[in-house]
Amino acid sequence: MKKDNLMTKQQLIAEEQKRLFRNRKVVQLNKFIKGDVTPFTVNDLKIFKLIISKVDSKDSLFQDFYEITTDEIRHLNINEKHLYSETKKSLKRLANIYITFEEEDSFREVGLIRNDFKFDKYSKKILINFNDDMSEYLINLKKNFFMYDLIDIVNFKYKHTLKLYEYIKSNSLNVIKLKVDTIKDILDLQNKYMRYTNFKKDVIEVIIDEINTSSNTLYLKYSEEKVGPKVEYIIFHITRINSEVLLEGTINESRAYSYLYGKECKYLGKYYEIEKVDLENNVIVLKEQYSNNKTNIVSESKEKLEEQLKKLFPKDFIEDSKDNELDEIGRLSAIKDFRAFKTKVVEKFKGKNIGNNMPGFDEDVIIKIDEASGYLFDTSVGKIITKEESLEIWRYLYKNKNKIGQINVNTPVNQIEQFINKIIYITKNDSFGNKESIKYIVTDIKEETDNNGITKYRLHINNLEDPTQDVEKSKTLLTFEQIKLFIEENSIEKNYSSHNE
Fold first, then answer.
1. Rounded to whole angstroms, how far apart are CA atoms 372 and 475?
2. HSE of 332, CA atoms in CB hemisphere, 13 A
3. What is the DSSP letter of 406?
4. 307/272 Cα distance (integer angstroms)
5. 249, 255 contact by CB (below 8 A)
């Protein structure tokens, strides 16, 4: 009964947010995102975006006042005990602190709302006027502006998340490459986080995690680019999701497989990432890696679609069955609060194994939740793990909810040994430009970690026809599946059969 009540409450909150913010869009001039919002809290900014959502950007003049309600403010996910007094504080900050813009050789101070907002007695309504300075940013907009659905930001907890979200929404690129210092400028973090590792861990990864968890229209991944030994650029890889499904109230079904979005799969000999699952039309949308080419897989029914997803993601797919224990964890994706998520998992898996291959532990170490205390327990040594180790695992599980309860004994590390001493043929050009097939042996496969912290492998091969040559290494890191495919396609068996034909 307790479980059902919890889920019902969350669903009701989500439905009420959709009802209140269904047609609310934030529309503003592109350059407004460059304003310094350092003095404001994330609650201040969410309330301000709520007010902006009431403005018609096609108007020539501001209305005399704009009306917001305490119900709307409460559903901005503002967790304050004294909502009325906190709202007044936010409105006073918005009225008395100006946003600073740097414009070529000068600075400009822009006022937001006027300091004459009204709380109607015996009413939930608050009446607010905009400062005239805001007119060029919010009304009579004809070009160089962008918009987004207010509901997409209501569950953000950090103002830096909101700023990067707006920056990404202000352009239509799916790959954005920015200098680290430029990102700090965007987030109003100049001269802070001097160590990149701290900036990455405490800012970039937090923002990406929150956007992927809370937003319904963006899914982000990132990579790094070094100049010498230093990371100079961060490259954001963006999947944009149509928001209309959310506003029509069918978001739960359409995002039923959102935990698969962005994951790598192999289809017809090529590697793709899943971009979308359209249950209404039984279509899986795949985007080819390192290009914008897309492939649609059309199924005749939902059952056939699920069968296809199982083939594409045999280890990650979660059965859509009420009897499957992992279904409950799949639905935990709807819980956008870390503490609520952790509480739910402990309740579901107390006394049970929650997985292996956890960060900070060997791949064969199985972690369980202790029956008596609810703490994480290392079964290999028979003791509770430290708070620091526990927090790292909980963060990992929060980002990878589909991994909960999975014990993978056939990890790639264990399977990689099957490829050692394999004979493969590689076609190269000889000194006269003619193609020749050279016989190699796989001497080793080394595990390495790429710039995103993902475990990959580097292939080591030796020329059997000239063993005196140095061992050759693959120039790029490969996933386990990529190595498997490469060796299978160039194996002695395949070459032998093709020669006989």
1. 50
2. 28
3. B
4. 18
5. no
Assign 480 to helix, strand or coil: helix
Structure tokens at 156: 């953000």
Strands in 209-325 per DSSP E: 218-227, 230-240, 264-267, 270-278, 283-288, 294-298
Distance CA 454, CA 231 (A): 17
Task: Note the pLDDT tens digit of each residue in 359-404.
Answer: 888 777 889 998 888 899 988 888 889 887 888 898 888 878 778 8
3-class DSSP state of 272: strand
What is the H or E stretch that residue 45 is in?
Answer: helix 42-52
Provide the β-strand partners of residue 350.
369
Q: How far apart are the first and last CA of the chain?
A: 66
- Record the pTM: 0.52
Closest CA to 140 of 51, 28, 35, 34: 28
Tell me the pLDDT tens digit for each residue of 12-34: 777 888 888 988 999 999 989 88
pLDDT, mean of residues 102-129: 85
Q: Which residues of 396-417 are buried (b: 16+ CB within 10 A; e: fewer)?
A: ebbeebbbbbbeeeeebbeebe
Distance between CA atoms of residues 87 and 72, nearest Å: 11
In this structure, the chain runs to a length of 501
Distance, in Å, from the CA atom of 287 to the CA atom of 394, rounded to the nearest integer, reads 30
| Separation CA 304–CA 449 (nearest Å) | 36
Question: What pLDDT band is residue 101 in, cutting at 50, 70 and 90?
Answer: confident
442-500 residue pLDDT tens:
888 888 877 766 678 888 898 887 777 788 888 888 888 788 888 888 886 444 444 43
Asked if 69 contacts 155 with a C-beta cutoff of 8 angstroms, the reply is no
Count the neighbouring beta carbons within 10 Å of the beta carbon of residue 234.
21
The answer to whether 310 and 302 are in contact (CB under 8 A) is: no
The residue to which tokens 């703490």 are assigned: 375
Instruction: Identify residue 249 by its one-letter amino acid code.
Output: G
Angle at 276 between CA 263 and CA 310, to 5 degrees: 55
| d(C-alpha 484, C-alpha 255), whole Å | 31
Strand partners, 36: 100
User: What Å distances lie between residue 37 and 77, 187, 193, 280, 338, CA to CA?
Assistant: 20, 9, 18, 41, 26
CA distance 292 to 180: 25
Residue 108 backbone dihedrals phi, psi, to 5 degrees: -125, 135
Tokens coding 58:
């096609």
One-letter amino acid for residue 268 of the chain: L
Which residues of 246-350 form beta strands (DSSP E)?
A: 264-267, 270-278, 283-288, 294-298
3-class DSSP state of 376 = strand
